[in-house]
Predict the structure.
Amino acid sequence: MKEAKGICYLVGAGPGDLGLVTLRAKECIEMADVLVYDALSSSLLLSWTNKDCEKIFVGKRAKNHALSQDEINALIVARTQAGKSVVRLKGGDPMIFGRGGEEAAELAAAGVAFEIVPGISSTIGGPCYAGIPVTHRDHCSQLTIFTGHEDPTKGESSIDYAQLAKAPGTKVFVMGIARLREICAQFVQHGTSAETPMALVRWATTPQQWTLVGTVGTMADIAEAQGYSSPAVAVIGEVVRERETIRWFDKRPLFGKRIVVTRTREQAGNLSKELANLGADVVELPVIRMEHPQDKLGFAECVATAHQYDWIVFTSPNGVEKFFEAFFSIHEDARCLGNPRIAVIGPGTAAKVKEFRIGVDLMPEKHVAEGLVEAFRNESIENLTILVVKPEQSRDVVSQGLADMGAIVDDCIAYRTVAETTDPTGAVEMLREQGADVITFTSASTVEHFFALGIPWPKGCKAGSIGPVTSDALRKIGHPPDFEATEFNIPGLVKAIKKNML
């Protein structure tokens, strides 16, 4: 039973890249009763919450505040006093220009429990992802960090530009783009050479990262000409010269390309990760989700009697997962499956079978239903019993093809796909407003349900198909694919995207 006493976690969400979020931060988000988050937090963090978590947006950017700081303080205190586990999620590190110290003081004054979870600050992470080391033995051993935006109620600035200009080493500042010209002028006025290298890194560590390089004397003009805006981190110092040699993040092959993944939320991970590792801006927009088959009893009976068959055929990784999930709810020992031979439609399905420490006896060279039927022609299956594990409303190619060869075939309907009706990260609106470079389709059902959303096709956007069945579905709906994978699996689709986007 959960204790009534609440606690508030002041959690740093890092600068934007989901991979930079700490394990402790993820743990806190997963157990939160209330998540209070701002505009700099990655929207994907919201998917880590439990289904009953209350999510409250309190975003602040420039002059547009969802809630004032006083209101945020009151909110987290009240929810904690109510016995909730509250996570106050803040971009970067909560204690580096994040007002985490003020929020902690309010929690302490209220007498409630709290914990501070540091995060990677954009003042460090941003330059790193731009290929700029904030310290370097050849250039400096000192780092100065300051903010370009101070408390507006102060009578005068507390930033001593004379001391900053004299200080050796690298200077890094955030929240200063609106005052960039003034800040640069202050440095020059107090003795910094106008030729000192300077860089700006916008949306650091995300696929939208945009780096400008110039000097203290030219940067304001460069930024204005480019229409550059916040959020950005600025770096002043000789270390900026290292970017030309060690820049890495924005040199990846798919950097700057927005790619939409339409797979189910559970399946999207592998494709999203592979694309993100290549630098793509991945938007997960699941258009389908898996549910139990309508005939749950029939599925259970198929699983319970699977040991009686000569062959078990799996047509998808989802079918494998659902089958063994049900199987091990009945049996504790994998040997209860008996000794049927195993056939799969492709390497992705084979890999999923092997996760359960079970070998695969047959996989076709051509990873489609027709290829599997053809592969069975080299086997003697007349009068043998075959269980075909498949989804509802799937093509009957495998079952009918094996029956035509004289096999005794039973279908095992393991799951069904239905339209996904939720969009917690706002991916639909993002696609409508910002468009995309590629929309990927991994099954006929993703085609059907994506176009049912009625989203106008983005200008210049390409449709990428995983294989011929999916491509046929695109053609039938009047939108032929721009490219199709030659290997009908996720690695093959990734290869096709690289080939067609470079």
